[in-house]
Amino acid sequence: MKTMYNQAHVKELMNRIENLNPSLQPKWGKMNVAQMLAHCSAFQDIAMGNSFPPRGLLGILIGRFVKPMFYNAKPPARNMSTIPSIIIADDRDFEVEKENLKAKIVQLQKDGPAKITTHPHPFFGKLTAEQWGIGLHKHLDHHLKQFGV
Question: Which Gene3D superfamilies does the protein's record reference (predicted)?
Answer without folding.
Answer: dinb family like domain
